[in-house]
Amino acid sequence: MGPIVGVLFDGFAYGMLLFLLSVGLSVTLGMMNFVNLAHCAFAMLGGYVTVTLMNQMGWPFFATLPASFLAAAVASIFLERALYRRLYRAGELDQVLLTIGLAFISVAVAAYIFGTIQQPIQTPSYLRGSIQIGGITFGVYRMFLVATGLAVALILVLTLEYTRFGAQVRAAVDNQRMARGLGINVEGAFAITFALGSGLAGLGGSLAIEIVGLDPSFAFIYLVYVLIVVSVGGLGSIGGSFAAAVLIGISDIAGKYYVPQLGAFLIYLVMVAVLMWRPQGLFGKR
Q1: Per-residue model confidence (pLDDT) at position 263
Q2: Between the CA of residue 265 and those of 259, 275, 281, what are the distances in Å?
Q3: Which region holds residue 118: left if phi is over 0, alpha if psi is between -120 and 50, else beta?
Q4: What are the pLDDT digits (tens) for 242-273?
């Protein structure tokens, strides 16, 4: 049972990493109906903020996490006001073309400033290594990822499902004219929601460096994983993204461990199987 539990734990931890990277897109795509393929560019920005602050300015790791969240959120506010807001009522093709163009630009800028090599990072000593529980080895950093992912999921559900702000955002998405008539600041609600989703991407990018590394290709490589998680989980469902991230994470780790000849292809089989069974995703309503 030891190896099985170890694989399940590593897969769950990887799933929490995917959840942190994808939940922001789940918020913007599911609640705002905006296709943002530049989402992982904000995650990459958060990663580079952490690397720069730690390696060049000597900041402690935990101090860089809120900085990465804020950097991605502020950048998203600027882009939302300058570009994204103009396309809220446009078709999906227009949104895709704009945001994929921004993703290409972000990759080029990152390669120009930081080069194409993997960025080194040294996490605190108390987050490195592993501990044994019942004869099973658990990575400390992976345990930290699990705790962080669970905390973020709980905060998001409470914020977006059980608060006045969450109700305002859902009302603005369903019927903007009616929401404005009720006195809701639709533009403000969308801007805050977009900043929240992008900030979470920045946080996820910072936390991902220790596991997957960081280079300019990050914005494209993990965009595929993020889109798989959101598709499998279903639009407009944070719980769906959580369940899909866990499913994809465990499938990926278990596939590489038990069926190495399939490699990372197993997650695509899982995606196809789920979407054939439920085209709207696990918890999607549309």
Answers
A1: 67
A2: 10, 16, 19
A3: beta
A4: 999 999 999 988 888 888 777 678 888 889 99
DSSP secondary structure of 30-87: HHH----TTHHHHHHHHHHHHHHHHHHH---HHHHHHHHHHHHHHHHHHHHHHTGGGG
Q: What is the pTM of this model?
A: 0.89
- What is the CATH code of the structural domain delimited by 2-277? 1.10.3470
The closest of 91, 119, 111, 138 to 41, measured between CA atoms, is 111
Q: Please write the tens of the pLDDT for every residue from 142-179.
A: 999 999 989 988 888 888 778 887 777 777 766 667 77
Contact, 196 vs 24, CB < 8 A? Answer: yes
Token pair 């929490």 in the structure block, residue: 16
Residue 201, by phi and psi: left (phi above 0), alpha (psi -120 to 50) or beta?
alpha
Compute CA distances 269 → 106, 131, 242, 251, 265, whole Å: 30, 33, 19, 10, 7
Residue 134 one-letter amino acid: G
For tokens 């979470």, what's the residue? 200
Q: How far apart are CA 141 and CA 129, in angstroms?
A: 8
